[in-house]
Amino acid sequence: MKLRLDREPGSVSQTGAEAAAPRGGTAPAIEVSHLTKNFGGRAAVADVSFTVARGEVFGFLGPNGAGKTTTVRILGTLISATAGSATVAGIPVGPATAAQIRQRISIMPESSGLYLRLTVTENLEYFARLYGLPRREARISEALAAVGLGDRAHDLAGSLSKGLRQRAALARSLLNDPAVMFLDEPTSGLDPVAAHGVLDLIAALRDRGVTVFLTTHRLEEAERLCDRVAIMNTSLRTIGRPDDLRRTLFTRSLDVTTAAPLAEPGRVFGGLAAVQGWQHGEQAGGGPAGYQLSVTNPAQAAPAVTRALVAAGADVLSIAESRHTLEDVYLQLVNDPGGRAQ
Amino acid sequence: MSASASRIGAVIRKELAEFRRNRLIVATAAVLPALFLIGPTASMLTIKASALSTALDKRVDYALFLPLLVPVLVPTLMSAYSVVGEREQGTLEPVLTTPVSGAELVIGKAAAIFMPAVALGYLIFGVFVAITQLAASSPVAAAVRQAPQLPAALVFIPLLAAWSIWVGLAISTRVSDTRVAQQLSVLGSLPPAALAALMSFQVISPTFGLAAALAGGLLAIDCAACLVVARMFDRERLVTGRQH
């Protein structure tokens, strides 16, 4: 799906040249330093620091009540921080700059928040006026076309499916040509097809160079879309590229499956210099003829393991590097009460 | 307090469009004025021309009191709903993420309720007076025409409506439940309703000077209420339910 929304001439947000610039090549879109938010005596966000580069799709992950939405609301100037500081789109977050920041960002909350008795166009018209946008009709048409809703422009929002409402909300978020888009659980409650459509739109935003701050529970979405992710549970547990996080948290390993269980697996794997350790597949979540081998370099270890297995008379069904998902990383960190911050 | 006329206009347009689309709101809002028109009008048309002037005056007082409740009661429930209702529907938070200020939002919402409420108030009085002048007996028509409450109503309809609206909005920005907001707003509209009763039944005789003083006082209260409600509009409280 193509996503194209012409930027206003003289717009204060990214120019075409900036949008095409390599990610991270310019000043950060978001900088957060020691951000803390307490509600009464309870810390919702505790001493969180991170930066998001321009044009980056940044995933903000965490369980319910982890402080994700609170962080978005602070950065979106809806609520104030108890301590710490932040800049969004190069503007320091504070009461004096709140309207200026709100002009340059958009936030799509978890629910579409559409006025169900108004048409899609009327909903967007309202927000275009609140943003004080020039050439409103053209911008609304462009935004609706960008999310594939051009033919539903005059339908009542209440007549749309939930997936289409999310698209309409996304179109609303595009109206002001935001420098930073905050998307809070954009696929929550959507069926797989509708969710896929919304994810395609976010991918198109990324390709266009828009900075996207995505909070989600769906780890496969974050893995697919995000350049970097932060895992949050009141405090920041970790931040980095999904691949880096996997490498940091998990030793590299090979998953080996043979046609029948090995009679003496210790003798087969124990003699290999490339293998640091091994465990039976059942312990590693595999079958009775499966084994997980700890290795430093899977590409070098795999041929040696194959030769050893053949020499032992085993029929090898598969040898592949173990694939830890972002979910593994997430569960490891969220369930670790000490966590780790980087 | 600075405000953008175009943003206020956007809020007004949206609110009026929503009213138009919600036939139930329009229908239920019309019931009370209809009752307050039918009852007094019937009372004026059925009174005998030979009735004593004191009896006639009492009927006229009563007849002119009920329509004066229209601008007090009709906007009360609408304004009480306007902020907390949006919050419950989930439509408020996206609006709060835009550059619209609290003042712009509440002024827009107030204006969108004020205009139909005042128009309805004048319409009810206009229809009542027109019917009595055309169909009632001459002494009754003359009593209505000469009632001091009639010119007072022209001034007080917008002032009473504004009071009810600001009370409703103030409550709506501070509570988290629509039902609580509406119940409290009805209580908050009692003072202007009492004022309307005192004037209509001539406990307070609406001489020009007194009416002007009361109108001036109400105007000052309405203006102050606008400022207070704009200041009470707290994004954090509206989003989280907590005061920061």
- Termini distance of chain A? 36 Å
Largest interface: A-B, 33 and 31 residues
Largest sheet of chain A: 6 strands, mixed
Whole-number radius of gyration of chain B? 20 Å
Proportion of residues in extended strands of chain B: under 5%
What can you see in these coordinates?
The complex is a heterodimer of chains A (342) and B (244). Chain A has helices at residues 16-20, 68-75, 98-104, 120-130, 136-146, 162-174, 192-208, 219-225, 242-249, 265-270, 298-311, 326-334; strands at residues 30-39, 42-52, 57-61, 83-88, 91-92, 105-108, 180-184, 211-216, 228-233, 235-240, 253-258, 275-280, 290-295, 316-321. Chain A is built from twelve helices and 14 strands. In chain A, strand 7 (180-184), helix 7 (192-208) and strand 8 (211-216) form a beta-alpha-beta unit. Chain A has two domains: 16-246, Rossmann fold (3-Layer(aba) Sandwich); 251-323, Alpha-Beta Plaits (2-Layer Sandwich). In chain A, strands 6-7-8-3-9-10 form a six-stranded mixed beta sheet, sandwiched between helices. Residues 1-25 of chain A have low confidence and may be disordered. With 342 residues, chain A is α/β, with parallel strands linked by helices. Chain B is an all-alpha fold and 244 residues long. Chain B has one domain (5-240). In chain B, 83% of the residues lie in helices and 0% in strands. In chain B, helix 1 (5-21) packs across helix 6 and helix 2 (23-46) packs parallel to helix 6. The longest helix of chain B has 34 residues, at 102-135. Chain B is elongated. The mean pLDDT of chain B is 88. Classes of the chains: A alpha/beta (342), B mainly alpha (244). The A-B interface holds A 39-40, 73, 76-80, 99-100, 102-103, 105-109, 111-115, 117-118, 122, 126-127, 129-132, 169, 172 and B 4, 6-7, 9-11, 13-14, 17-18, 21-22, 89-101, 235-236, 239-240, 242, 244.
